[in-house]
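Hi support team,

I've been running sequence recovery on a batch of backbones for a student project. Most finish fine, but this one hangs at about 90% for roughly twenty minutes before it completes. I'm not sure whether the input is malformed or the queue is just slow. I've pasted the structure tokens below so you can try to reproduce it. Let me know if you need the job ID as well.

Thanks,
M.K.
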């Protein structure tokens, strides 16, 4: 994905693989969300596989990445790709003023404002910079972009902006545990790295919610895709595509898929789209000749072999079931927060796992959660002083890109107050 005002960038790598390969999908998804230009080479015959040194389609060394400098990596992990792209770094400081966990819109916004205002800032990101927003093919209601902008493009601009101000981004790292003592917020990463900071912002967002079907994992990346699936849209030509979900992200994804697919069917549990979808998207969906919406409906079964072949839908009012042949099922039904670490660290969560902050820590002016200081917690502060939450991970947050950006900036304001007064 590129800026419309600039010529397309040359591919930074070639990716050889087979359609329906979960490993190849994971790499395509990462590269697309990271705004990395690449060339996908689909292997359609055993002869094509042998031409690149493989024994056939089932060779465990697939997929293969060939980088622009000629380096070849067989069946690479995302971590290896990050390293080859030159994005993998160790922390440069023994202690930071601000550590941000998660590089979605909230985390990137906090990084820009923190670093630009003189805070020694580090960002830790497990996967692709941009979070779930980077998978959106087009964000049309973000202020200042009347023609819309892809999530990947917006994330890349924010990453570049944060780095220009001096923020460090540690990509390919996952925080697994936190310890909070007087004056220090210590994060332990999965690879053994320790991040010490005076303050921290949790902006880890949410992970896609699953359908909960018995054989769902079998088809992940082989017919079942979570999120907007922007990396897969070009493969859906002349296909019947199904998309589960009724929110704005689902609507945008369905419209994007409808440009190439023969038919796009939206599967919605509710009785209409009005309560969950912006009116401009509803109007576009209604006017699209190759789109249909099935309300009061849910997916109850998945069928296939090595890839998805069919799905069964059930009407929630009549219990009637119907099976449809398809190789494409996209799931955009919200998510659950990345907060498993919080339970051990003593950080308060609500019943759904979202971090509780600021006024929500009190009821009728009285604290309902452990709060150790005489002052009231700042608006985005958790029950641990100096630990803040921003974006989708926070209880009561508005699930919009612009809101996440605003919360990231606001959290830095409270970081300054905490550093000045405790």
């Amino acid at each position: 994905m590129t800026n419309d005002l600039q010529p397309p960038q040359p591919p930074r790598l070639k990716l050889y693989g087979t359609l329906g390969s979960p490993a190849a999908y994971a790499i395509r998804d990462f590269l697309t969300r990271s705004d990395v230009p690449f060339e996908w080479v689909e292997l359609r015959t055993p002869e094509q596989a042998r031409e690149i040194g493989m024994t056939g389609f089932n060779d465990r060394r697939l997929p293969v990445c060939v980088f622009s400098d000629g380096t070849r990596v067989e069946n690479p992990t995302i971590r290896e790709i990050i390293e080859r792209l030159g994005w993998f770094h160790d922390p440069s400081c023994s202690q930071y003023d601000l550590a941000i966990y998660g590089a979605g819109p909230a985390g990137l916004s906090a990084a820009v404002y923190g670093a630009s205002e003189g805070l020694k800032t580090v960002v830790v990101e497990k996967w692709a910079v941009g979070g779930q927003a980077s998978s959106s093919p087009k964000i049309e209601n973000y202020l200042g972009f009347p023609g819309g902008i892809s999530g990947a493009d917006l994330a890349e601009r924010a990453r570049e902006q944060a780095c220009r101000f001096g923020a460090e981004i540690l990509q390919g790292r996952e925080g697994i545990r936190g310890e909070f003592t007087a004056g220090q917020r210590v994060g332990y990463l999965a690879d053994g790295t320790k991040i010490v900071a005076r303050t921290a912002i949790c902006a880890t967002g949410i992970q896609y919610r699953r359908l909960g079907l018995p054989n769902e994992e079998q088809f992940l990346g082989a017919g079942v895709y979570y999120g907007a699936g922007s990396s897969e849209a070009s493969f859906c030509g002349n296909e019947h595509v199904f998309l589960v979900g009724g929110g704005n992200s689902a609507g945008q994804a369905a419209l994007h898929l409808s440009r190439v697919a023969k038919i796009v069917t939206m599967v919605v549990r509710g009785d209409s789209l009005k309560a969950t979808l912006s009116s401009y998207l509803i109007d576009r969906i209604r006017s699209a000749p190759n789109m249909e919406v099935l309300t009061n409906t849910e997916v109850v079964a998945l069928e296939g072999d090595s890839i998805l072949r069919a799905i069964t839908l059930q009407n929630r009012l009549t219990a009637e079931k119907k099976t449809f042949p398809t190789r494409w099922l996209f799931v955009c039904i919200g998510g659950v927060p990345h907060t498993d670490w919080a339970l051990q660290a003593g950080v308060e969560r609500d019943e759904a796992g979202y971090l509780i902050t600021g006024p929500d820590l009190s009821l009728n002016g009285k604290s309902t959660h452990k709060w150790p200081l005489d002052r009231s917690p700042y608006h985005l502060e958790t029950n641990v002083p100096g630990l803040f939450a921003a974006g989708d991970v926070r209880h009561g947050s508005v699930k919009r890109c612009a809101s996440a950006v605003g919360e990231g900036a606001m959290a830095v304001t409270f970081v300054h107050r905490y550093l000045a007064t405790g």
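--
Follow-up from support: It reproduced on our side and the slowdown came from queue contention, not your input. The two ends are 44 Å apart (CA to CA). No action needed from you.
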